[in-house]
Design goal:
It contains 14 helices and ten strands. By secondary structure, the protein is an alpha/beta fold. The chain has one domain: Aldolase class I (TIM Barrel), CATH 3.20.20. The radius of gyration is 19 Å and the shape is globular. GO terms for molecular function: fructose-bisphosphate aldolase activity.
Length: 341
């Protein structure tokens, strides 16, 4: 079992490839579809995601895995083909979000803990049978006045580790996602301090829960200035701070690091990832696991209309290719001007 986990984890960070996060909850996808004037029906959600998954150029060349929502894992395309089969036919690995969302943390105003451990063993077994081969669990850590608390950091780290152990027990590679949020006026130095504390706590708990690190991926935030910080750090400073923080906290045994975009613009997320790979050597591959930063152009290009599918898929393939270049440290602003392959 351990060997299969390692094989899957390494396949998910194959050179030049990254992960598409298409695991938006029903409420989140409703907002995304509303932004283009489309009602969030099951059919609309199916059509949108099918458009992405049938972008064979993007999936076969640049996307190693797709994180799905429960509905999508069980869903069939318009022609009756299961979504997981469409994904797998491109040589891409299906995965599944298994947490049930971040809820207010009792006794800690303004902070949250991610729930979903109850019944997780049974869900993981079922998800494996449905074709998933990896999982994702997201914890959110806010920076603010007196935040984060030690309680918040350690409660979320413990939950992430328990989740990871249960996922591996079922033969699923766990993506461990402790996200330090960008929201606020904090400096990049404050983000570094919090991210370092969070990652240290997470790996302490993963060790305590006997998680096999070689069969895991880390999905962290980049070390960034807060969205309201008046003096925001540049690309090379972000790359330096992020890689330094990871080297201080993440064991070399981890199979790979796939960053979340966390509210960055499409090009910001790509530029930061490329700078890390171009300027720094690391013990693990550094790649991407983006949601909105991969999907936004395709979503607006699609607009809910069948006649726009081809152009939307081209936009998606272009964004995937840009991030593939970034995963090799070869992205450039000039490449953004090229048409999708």
């Amino acid at each position: 079992m351990t060997g299969k986990l390692q094989d899957t984890a390494h396949a998910m960070v194959a050179p030049g490839k990254g992960i598409l996060a298409a695991d938006e909850s029903t409420s989140t996808i409703k907002k995304r579809l509303a932004s283009i004037g489309v009602e969030s029906t099951e059919e609309a959600r199916r059509d949108y995601r099918e458009m992405l998954f049938r972008s064979h150029d993007a999936l076969s060349n640049y996307i190693s895995g797709v994180i799905l929502y429960d509905e999508t894992l069980r869903q069939k395309a318009a022609d009756g083909t299961p979504m997981v089969e469409i994904i797998a036919s491109a040589g891409t690995i299906p995965g599944i979000k298994v947490d049930t969302g971040a809820k207010p943390l009792a006794g800690c105003p303004g902070e949250k803990v991610t729930e979903g451990l109850d019944g997780l063993r049974e869900r993981c077994t079922q998800y494996y049978e449905l074709g998933a081969r990896f999982t994702k669990w997201r914890a959110v850590i806010a920076i603010g006045e007196g935040l984060p608390s030690r309680t918040c950091i350690h409660t979320n780290a413990h939950a992430l580790a328990r989740y990871a152990a249960l996922a591996q027990e079922a033969g699923l590679v766990p993506i461990v996602e402790p996200e330090v949020l960008m929201d606020g006026p904090h400096t990049i130095e404050r983000c570094f301090e919090v991210t370092e504390a969070v990652l240290n706590a997470v790996y302490d708990e993963l060790y305590a829960q006997r998680v096999v690190l070689e069969g895991t991926l880390l999905k962290p935030n980049m070390v960034l200035s807060g969205t309201e910080c008046p003096d925001r750090a540049g690309v090379e400073q972000v790359a330096e701070a992020t890689v330094t923080c990871l080297k201080r906290t993440v064991p070399a045994a981890v199979a790979g690091v796939v960053f979340l975009s966390g509210g960055q613009s499409d090009e910001e997320a790509t530029a930061h990832l490329s700078a890390m790979n171009a300027l720094h050597d690391t013990p693990w591959p550094l790649s991407f696991s983006y949601g909105r930063a991969l999907q936004a152009a395709a979503l607006h290009g699609w607009g809910g209309k069948a006649e726009n599918v081809a152009s939307a898929q081209a936009a998606f393939a272009h964004r995937a290719r840009m991030n593939s270049l970034a995963a090799d440290g070869r992205w450039s602003a000039a490449a953004e001007q090229e048409k999708a392959a």
